[in-house]
Every structure is written in structure tokens, then in C-alpha cells.
Design goal:
- It is built from 14 helices and 5 strands.
- The chain is an alpha/beta fold and about 375 residues long.
- The longest helix has 28 residues.
């Protein structure tokens, strides 16, 4: 392989990974219901106290509307919402915005996506023969999670793209939106609840900062992760995996070895995301340049994809079990779990996720696992 060919392959490899990092990594974080809790506690703690996150269930956007397939990076959940006078189902829609350009049409986009969700819910009433007196749209909690570098100075309203006379304001739909601009928010605000997600976001804030700043942010976050109780070990592994991923995709190659060793010193060999850990070990053992060259020649990209797929497989199985537990609380989901863990075909698991949403009873679902 010539030097020119090697350099081109390295550039192409890195560009592909860099382009996918924001959507893939953040969406992976928000597939964890504890991080949904952490996000809402940061931006609306009063509402977080009324949401039963233990019964949070993921909904697949491509089951809601074909148009929402274009927003495959976004996440949609259902959870019980309870006050003293009322108990209902709440939909939580998180729109992930990573572009540095501020979108003046965000208010319009949000309303469009919410209308599509409600429209599909309405269509479901007819398909499922829901009685008229039971046909009620679920309220949606819209959240914009923005990681761009530019200050967001555009209101999340329809009025933002209108020349609107005061006399006509009352005819324009209005709704509130929860909004978090990660780069603009004070670190003290992100970490005020001591949730691991807040500390992850303080590191994300410094993804483009100088070496001293990223080191300080890493050390503070890692000290916090180290103090987490054993009950939060899964969150600790996920947080460290995300940080390793960020280092590999957002920091210069010259910093990788130092920053990865810093993480290792503070994590006590915590088992993290196999994809991130494998990449980190490659870089430390063989050096960045050599590791990338050999990785390209030996199919390291395939290894990365396998790591991502493994994480997606585990999340899909967990989501299936969450749905089954919610719909059939007295069923033996352990039996389903054992069978699901023998399935490695992601298309099959995605189909089973859809089946879990519609199956009339738990026994029928179990029988379907054997076919």
C-alpha cells in the first residue's frame, strides 16, 4: 500500500466515523431510561417528579410515521404521568440537533412531528376499534437537545418564521418546548442533580477545547463516576464508554494515548462498551497511526460495526422485555429473556419488538419465539 493510498483510506475512515458520532453516540445514551430521567431533571425537575421512569417504554419512530423515519436519530418514549388529581400516559419526544447552524424553522418542525405522532395515534383507534369515549390523544413533552457551537437565539415558535400582526396572534398554535443547549449551559446547571448524564455533558462541552480544559473536565467527571454506588455500575460503564468514544472521534490523534490512559487510571478496569474499549486498546498498544493502518487493512471498521450492533442488540432485547413487563406484568419474562439472548439476527429482534407491542398475550409471544 502506497503512502498516498494509506493516507486517503485513513482520512476516509475517520470522516465516516466523525460524521456518525453525534447522532449515534447521543442516541445510544438516550436509549437508557435513566439518562432520559437525568435530562428532564436538568431542564424541568418539577415535571421529572411526576413521571414514572421505571415504566418508561421506548417507541420506534418508524412505527409512528414514515416521515419520522428521516428523524431516526430522535427518540420517543411513553411513560405514566401522575398528579394528585390525574393520571395519564405521556409521550416524550427528544429531537436531537447537532448542526452548528441554528434552525429558524425548529418550531414548525416540532409541531409537524407532534402532529404526525398524534395522527398515527388517531389512526390506531380505527385499527384497534377503540370506543369513542376512550379515544384520547396522549400529551407530548417536546424536548430539543442541541449540541451545536453557535448560540441559539431563535424562539422555538411558529411566530419565528412569520410576519405576524398582533391582531392575528391568537390564531397561531402555541406550545412550550423544553430546550437544552449543551454548549451554552453552565456546568453547575448540568451537574446540579449529580446525575451521571450531567457530567457526561460537561465533557461534551469541552470536545473542542484546549488540552488543559478537556483534561480538567475529564478528571472531574471521572471522579464523580468513581463515587457512584454499585447499583449504578451499568451507568458508569456506559458513561466511560461514551467518553472513550468522544476522545477517539473528537480529539486529535496526538492526544489519544494520554487521554485514554487518564481514563484508565480513574476507572479501575471498569468494563465498558466493547467497541470503544477495543478501539482504545488498539491505539494504546500499537499507536494511533499504526493502529489505523492495520485496522483498515484487517477490517477494523467491521469490528466497530459489530460493536455497535452488539449494543443495539442488547438494547433491543431490553426494550422487548420492558414492553412485555408493562403489558403482561405477571408473566415470566425470564423465560423470554433466555430465548431472546440466543437470537443474533437484528431484523428478527426488531420484528419481535413490533410483535411485543401488538401480541394479544404473553403465551402467544413465547410461541412466536420458537417459530
Amino acid at each position: 500500500m502506497t503512502v498516498e493510498t494509506k493516507e486517503k483510506k485513513v482520512r476516509d475512515f475517520l470522516n465516516r466515523q466523525l460524521g456518525r458520532f453525534p447522532d449515534r453516540s447521543i442516541r445510544h445514551l438516550f436509549q437508557n431510561k435513566e439518562n432520559i430521567r437525568g435530562l428532564i431533571e436538568i431542564i424541568a425537575n418539577d415535571l421529572a417528579q411526576l413521571i414514572d421512569f421505571n415504566k418508561l417504554v421506548p417507541l420506534n419512530p418508524d412505527l409512528i410515521s414514515e416521515i419520522l423515519q428521516e428523524r431516526e436519530a430522535d427518540v420517543l418514549f411513553r411513560a405514566p404521568f401522575k398528579t394528585e388529581e390525574h393520571s395519564d400516559e405521556l409521550l416524550i419526544y427528544i429531537l436531537l440537533e447537532h448542526q452548528s447552524t441554528v434552525d429558524d424553522e425548529m418550531g414548525f418542525r416540532l409541531l409537524l412531528y407532534m402532529m404526525l405522532i398524534w395522527d398515527q395515534q388517531r389512526r390506531g383507534w380505527k385499527t384497534d376499534n377503540v370506543p369513542k369515549n376512550k379515544q384520547r390523544l396522549s400529551p407530548i413533552l417536546p424536548i430539543v437537545f442541541y449540541t451545536g457551537d453557535r448560540r441559539w437565539n431563535t424562539p422555538l415558535t411558529l411566530q419565528a418564521i412569520m410576519d405576524l400582526p398582533k391582531e392575528l396572534e391568537r390564531f397561531v398554535p402555541q406550545f412550550d418546548t423544553l430546550f437544552l443547549s449543551v454548549k451554552e449551559t453552565e456546568a453547575a446547571t448540568l451537574t446540579k442533580t449529580a446525575h451521571p448524564l450531567g457530567w457526561i455533558l460537561t465533557v461534551l462541552q469541552k470536545e473542542k477545547a484546549d488540552s488543559a480544559e478537556i483534561r480538567d473536565a475529564l478528571i472531574e467527571a471521572l471522579i464523580h463516576f468513581g463515587a457512584l454506588p454499585e447499583a449504578q455500575s451499568a451507568q458508569k460503564r456506559e458513561a466511560i464508554g461514551y467518553i472513550l468514544d468522544l476522545i477517539l472521534h473528537r480529539r486529535s490523534p496526538e492526544e489519544h494515548e494520554e487521554l485514554i490512559r487518564l481514563v484508565d487510571r480513574h476507572t479501575n478496569n471498569v468494563e465498558v462498551d466493547p467497541m470503544a474499549r477495543t478501539m482504545a486498546e488498539e491505539l494504546l498498544e500499537r499507536g494511533f497511526e499504526q493502529g489505523i493502518e492495520q485496522g483498515i487493512e484487517q477490517g477494523i471498521e467491521q469490528g466497530i460495526e459489530q460493536g455497535i450492533e452488539q449494543g443495539a442488540r442488547e438494547n433491543t432485547i431490553e426494550n422487548i422485555l420492558l414492553l412485555l413487563t408493562e403489558r403482561f406484568p405477571n408473566s415470566d419474562t425470564e423465560a423470554a429473556k433466555q430465548r431472546l439472548q440466543t437470537i443474533y439476527d437484528m431484523e428478527r429482534l426488531q420484528q419481535l419488538l413490533r410483535t411485543a407491542m401488538k401480541t394479544p398475550n404473553f403465551e402467544t409471544f413465547l410461541q412466536g419465539l420458537d417459530t
